[in-house]
Specification:
The structure is a single chain. 17% of the residues lie in helices and 32% in strands. By secondary structure, it is of the alpha/beta class. It is globular and about 70 Å long.
Length: 417
């Protein structure tokens, strides 16, 4: 490495996962062209990496907040481009970060552009999912199998139930850093093809658990979920008292895949996948957007979730380039249905050029991975830069929505590193 070249991460090399860092390089030759790289390994041992070419200014400095990438994993001024543009070293892999206790460590480095690409400087960015003072507590009570994240302090905290389709603590822990008490529960604790029915009562137990918690100050519970989990969130809003704010992300307006039961009777039949409608692409993945049968077809009316019954508020979030299914169409159908019933208890946002997998910001964008139901690699959609920008915007919007509709004294509590 060159002793003159310095790579700095500002304001600190240690930060929360959803916080930006400013990447700066000094000590280069005037107008020197270099490669900036980022590299990380996920929980499954898959290596993710990115690379972009930059030209130093007349003083031998590069600032990713100011300077454009000339080529590589992205082009243009993208201050966090090295993070969201990281790609796996094998096809169809999604970055796995399910355990909140382990930080996401990214190695940034600067390399000579010519010859053997000698490394000139490096720095590690430790991106924490759980801030100092936030507690992580496994919950195994009744039918609840999850993890409770509690901000530091005595409370009272606004309560959120985070329903992940499969085990993942990332979103829940990051919300807890913002002052919310969050219970994360996976919709599927077993392989989906082993699950013949789901019971809304099990998720109601999670809502009641939060409402009865001594540190919860909100009068009701917020629910957040994406994809299959989002229809469970809608069903909770429609059938269960105490759910006052629901964030539905890239979901369906109907119950998907398996029958839903409540109080020992089936309340919703499922819409199912039609595997004959999968479209193969050159990479070996499939586009499955048209694979779900139409919820509005007469034979599927029993699968539509009666959200017009809900007493709480909705935030509907869809993407125009969702290749998993037509989340934009489902959202528009729900908005029209609520309007027909004289309801105005919703807001909606649709992101152009974003894909299905909207997550907290600054993780690697995932173009394709194995689908939990289809069990084949599928295309998720989205243009990487636009998708990354959508995640930044949405993450702020989610917090604002919950702060507005889960009001209590402790909403401004923040976990600090």
């Amino acid at each position: 490495m060159s002793s003159q070249v310095r790579l700095r991460l500002l304001p600190s090399a240690r930060c929360l996962f959803d916080e930006p860092v400013q990447v700066k390089v000094a000590g280069l030759r005037s107008r020197q062209v270099v490669s900036m790289k980022a590299r990380s390994t996920d929980e499954k041992g898959v290596v993710f990496s990115s690379s972009a070419t930059y030209r130093a200014d007349g003083s031998g400095e590069i600032d990713l907040k100011r300077d454009p990438s000339l080529s590589g994993s992205y082009v243009g001024v993208e201050p966090m481009g090295l993070l969201w543009s990281m790609r796996p070293d094998t096809l169809h892999r999604k970055f796995k970060k399910t355990n909140a206790l382990n930080p996401h460590v990214v190695k940034f480095s600067v390399h000579e552009e010519e010859g053997e690409e000698r490394m000139l400087a490096e720095a590690n960015n430790e991106r924490l999912l759980i801030g100092d003072g936030v507690s992580w507590l496994p919950v195994k009570e009744g039918n609840i199998r999850g993890v409770l994240f509690t901000p530091p302090g005595e409370g009272q905290f606004p309560a959120v139930l985070d329903l992940s389709s499969f085990k993942s603590e990332k979103r829940a822990s990051l919300l807890a850093n913002k002052g919310f008490m969050v219970l994360n529960v996976a919709v599927f604790s077993d392989k989906p093809d082993n699950v013949k029915e789901l019971h809304l009562d099990h998720f109601k137990e999670a809502v009641d658990f939060l409402l009865q918690h001594p540190k919860v100050g909100s009068k009701g519970v917020g629910v957040i979920s994406r994809s299959k989990g989002a229809d469970i969130a809608l069903s909770l809003a429609a059938y269960v008292t105490g759910v006052v704010a629901t964030v539905w992300i890239s979901g369906c307006s109907a119950n998907v895949a398996v029958p839903l039961y409540y109080r020992k009777r089936q309340i919703l039949s499922p819409v199912v996948f039609d595997f004959s409608k999968l479209i193969p692409v050159e990479s070996g993945a499939f586009i499955i957007k048209d694979g779900v049968t139409n919820p509005l077809a007469e034979e599927n009316k029993g699968s539509l979730i009666p959200i017009e019954q809900a007493k709480g508020r909705f935030l509907f979030v869809a993407s125009e380039d969702d290749l998993n299914w037509d989340s934009k169409g489902y959202m528009e159908e729900m908005v029209e249905r609520l309007k027909r019933h004289g309801k105005d208890n919703f807001e909606s946002v649709c992101y152009p050029r974003a894909g299905h997998l909207l997550e907290p910001p600054y993780g690697p964008y995932c173009p394709s991975s194995v689908h939990g139901f289809v069990l084949k690699p599928v295309m998720w959609g989205g243009e990487p830069s636009s998708h990354a920008a959508a995640e930044v915007h949405l993450w702020k919007k989610i917090q604002e929505f919950f702060r507005t509709h889960l009001s209590c004294d402790a909403t401004q509590t923040k976990a600090k590193l």
